[in-house]
Specification:
Length: 151
């Protein structure tokens, strides 16, 4: 897959920590030239980057090559979180929806529409103990649902 607006560099800049003697060096740097990266999640196979451009860029976690661009949201991707099995990626966006993505097939499983007047979905947290996905919303509310019964 050729993604002309994505580049990779093996010689990234040094990270600066609060204590200069404790500086670290990045292992790798992935650049996306079109939109800011707003959220990140990773499995052993993929790195997922939610962007300001309403899409999620998927990179190979071993070779750092672009794999796919997940589309469907109509607003910036503010939040990404994986379930406990890492088989489902949830994305929260500026269109007020949460999408559930299959991390093996890289396809959308279902879409959750938030309640009325919620605005953007700004944050997500998955709780395995209760099989619950929590959504932090622009209107200051917290909403939640069980992914095993999204209705």
């Amino acid at each position: 897959m050729d993604l002309p607006n994505a580049t990779f560099t093996p010689s990234p800049p040094k990270l600066q920590l609060a204590e200069p003697s404790l500086s670290l060096r990045c292992f790798q740097t992935l650049f996306h030239k079109e939109h800011s990266v707003l959220s990140i999640a990773a499995t052993k196979d993929y790195i997922f980057c939610g962007t300001q451009g309403s899409c999620i860029h998927v990179w190979g976690a071993q070779d750092f090559l672009p794999r796919k661009v997940l589309t469907g949201h109509r607003g910036s991707i503010f939040a990404l979180v994986l379930d406990a099995t890492q088989k489902t990626l949830y994305s929260g966006a500026g269109d007020g929806t949460v999408r559930a993505w299959d991390t093996e097939t890289l396809t959308c499983r279902f879409v959750v529409h938030s309640g009325p007047n919620v605005g953007d979905i700004l944050s997500l947290a998955y709780c395995a103990e209760f099989d619950t996905l929590f959504m932090g919303c622009q209107n200051t509310s917290i909403q939640w649902f069980s992914p095993s019964s999204p209705d």
